[in-house]
Amino acid sequence: MKKIKSLFVAIMLIVGATSFVNAQTKVAHIDTQALAESMPEMKEAQSQLEKLQKTYDTEIKTLVREFETKIKQYEVEAESKTAEENAKRAEEVQGMQTNINAYRQGALEDLQKKQEDLIAPILEKARVAIQKVGRAQGYQYVMDSSTLLLAEGKDLLVDVKKELGI
Question: What is the DSSP string of 72-91?
């Protein structure tokens, strides 16, 4: 009876150990930010965004210069104008300032939307490549190593770059 119990316990340990080995998952990691930055599409998108931002900056600087010029002109002429004319000029200046702020806000929103529109397909392409390489190599999980404190295991960056032709 003792031998049967011992044999049963030994079988259970073997089955348990085999189940544990089979239950282990394969985990890899990749720095998705480094991957995205190395993609030519990302460099082109950043170039387009910088160009658009410079256009907006130039326009805003022009509006601000016009605003400042008008203020200086009105300050110099204020003593020679009536209170009613100065009040109208103050309203005009206030309106110019409001327009500049609205333009600046619209430009920021437009830049954010353009950034989302340009970068979303690039990140999707990277995600698809990461999944393809991870699955081909038998990984159940691929973690973003830019947020991990410890990233031991297979780094897929080189393999995914190869998949993307970078």
Answer: HHHHHHGGGS-HHHHHHHHH
